[in-house]
Amino acid sequence: MTMASRTDVHLMDDAESALRDDLAAAFRLAAKFGWSESVGNHFSAAVSQDGTRFLLNPRWRHFSAIGPDDLLLLDANDPATMDRPDAPDPSAWCIHGAVHRTNPKARVLLHCHPPNATALACLKDPELKPIDLNTARFYRRIAYDRDFGGMADKVAEGQRIATAIGENAALIMCNHGVAVSAETVPEAFEHLYFLERACATLLKAYGSGQPLNELSPELAASTADEWDAYADMAFAHFVHLKAELEAGE
């Protein structure tokens, strides 16, 4: 079986069930934060050890309406995926299929077009300058794909994006949007949360017309390293956000 909803899988382990719950919550939270866009964009999470079997949102379903049962279970190595009637969005398959096929360390990949991060991605200089704690969080942990090729629905485009993100926490997809990667959904969502905040801060600083007070490379690097001690924040934050969802807040 290469593509299935949750109800089609008879022997689902607890880990996959929990992963479905977290990924579905990430979609709804993204919509709540205003990061969804029509019924496009896509999040995925690897199920198999090698990363090639992964969960992905169904084609053209609004983020706010995605539940655990709706997620597709795909095989990145299955060439017939896009020939099925319930095939995913072509750009989703292009990007996420390529990443999960070639980059097993990218267990979770969240791709969307949040306003501030996308605005930064559209600047001639899209680099996230280290000017505070949040921007420094990504220092030397963010990549830039400057070769925008359109809708990202071609094989070469997906392969280029998969290579560009590498082992980085985030990828600025110039003239397009962003993608973040992590081992777990809470960690990936925290990357997306702080990336959007960091981009907002930088854009506001640019908007002041005053020169940026950039951190030195040494201070930016040490600040980024200091964030590692706060990695568990992601899990505590995600538990809180999920509780708000369940409470209908």
Task: Provide a descriptive summary of the structure in words.
Helix 2 crosses helix 5 (155-165), helix 3 crosses helix 6 and helix 6 packs across helix 8 (233-246). The protein is of the alpha+beta class and 249 residues long. The chain has a 7-stranded mixed sheet with strand order 3-2-1-4-7-6-5, sandwiched between helices. The protein has helices at residues 14-32, 90-102, 115-121, 133-136, 155-165, 185-207, 217-226, 233-246; strands at 42-46, 53-56, 72-75, 108-112, 142-145, 170-173, 177-182. Strand 1 (42-46) and strand 2 form a beta hairpin. It has one domain (6-246): 3-Layer(aba) Sandwich (L-fuculose-1-phosphate Aldolase), CATH 3.40.225.10.
* Quaternary state of the chains: single chain
Name the shape in a single word: globular
Number of helices: 8
- Order of helices and strands, N to C? HEEEHEHHEHEEHHH
CATH topology: L-fuculose-1-phosphate Aldolase
Number of separate structural domains: 1
Uncertain parts: 1-11
CATH architecture: 3-Layer(aba) Sandwich
Q: Into which percentage range does the β-strand content fall?
A: 5-15%
Query: What structural class is derived from the secondary structure elements?
Result: alpha+beta
Mean pLDDT: 93
Number of strands: 7
Distance between the termini: 37 Å
Spatial extent as radius of gyration: 18 Å
CATH class: Alpha Beta
Largest sheet: 7 strands, mixed
Major sheet strand order: 3-2-1-4-7-6-5
Q: Can you say what the CATH homologous superfamily is?
A: Class II aldolase/adducin N-terminal domain
Helix content: 40-55%
